[in-house]
Amino acid sequence: MQIEVAATKQQTAVNFADWLIDRIHSNDTLHVALSGGSTPKIVFDELASRNLSVIKWRKVHLYWGDERCVSPEDSESNYKMTVEHLLSKIEIPEGNIHRVKGENDPSQEAQRYSEELRQYLPIVDGLPQFDVVILGMGDDGHTASIFPHEIELWNAEQLCAVAQHPETGQKRITITGKIINHAIVVAFLVTGESKAEKVGEIINERGGYKSYPAHLVHPSSENLMWFLDEPAAAEITTQS
C-alpha cells in the first residue's frame, strides 16, 4: 500500500494527475476505470488542463467503475460529469470511450458491459484486466456502487452487477470485486474531513472496518494507492 497525502483537495488532484500522466507516457495502451464524485471532477479538470496531445490520448481507453441508471444527459450521470470536465476538453477517439449505458435495462446492461470489458480489456488468467481502477469512497465506506447493505456483491461471480442505493433506491451498475482486485493498480481518491473516520478505520484495520466494502480492496498485484488530502488522512495512525 502506498499513501500520498497532500495539504489540499486541489493538490491531491495535481498529484494524481501527475501520477496518471506518467503512466500514460510509459505505456503503449492504458485501460482506466473512472470514478464519479466530487474529487474526480477536479482531477478531470486538472488532466484536461495539461494539454496532452491526441497521440497520447489515443493510447488511453476509458471505462466507468460504476454508473447510475439514468440517461447520459441526466445531471446524476457519471458519464455526463466526465464529458463536462474532461472529454469535451481533450482529443480522444470516440472508440476509446466505453460508457455504461445507464438508460438501458439495468440487468441487461450489466451483462452487456461485462461483455464489453471482455472484448476490449486484456485477458489475464481468464479475467479482463484494467491497468488502473480509480475508486472513491463514500462517507459510509462504500466504493464503486457496492454499499454496506449489499457488501455480498463484492464477491459476485459476474464482472458487473446491479446495485441499489440504500436510501433512494436508485439502481446502479457497478463492477465487482473480482475485476477491481484483478487490476494492475487500484487507486483511491478520497478527500474531505467527512471521510477521515472511515479512512482511518480501513487503513489501520480498526473499529467497524470489516463492514465497509472499501476495506475489501486488496489487488492481487499488491499495487494499492491512496491519494488523500490532510483532512481525509487525519485519523490514520500509521502509514504502513
From TrEMBL:
Reaction catalyzed: 6-phospho-D-glucono-1,5-lactone + H2O = 6-phospho-D-gluconate + H(+)
Keyword terms: Hydrolase
Start and end residues of each Glucosamine/galactosamine-6-phosphate isomerase domain: 8-226
Pfam families the UniProt entry points to: Glucosamine_iso (PF01182)
The keyword Hydrolase appears for this protein: yes
GO terms classed as biological process: carbohydrate metabolic process; pentose-phosphate shunt
EC number: 3.1.1.31
Pathway(s) served: Carbohydrate degradation; pentose phosphate pathway; D-ribulose 5-phosphate from D-glucose 6-phosphate (oxidative stage): step 2/3
An MF annotation (GO) of this entry: 6-phosphogluconolactonase activity
Origin: domain of life: Bacteria
NCBIfam families: pgl
Family statement: Belongs to the glucosamine/galactosamine-6-phosphate isomerase family. 6-phosphogluconolactonase subfamily.
Role according to the record: Hydrolysis of 6-phosphogluconolactone to 6-phosphogluconate.
Protein name, entry field: 6-phosphogluconolactonase
Natural source organism: Pricia antarctica
Gene that produces this protein: pgl
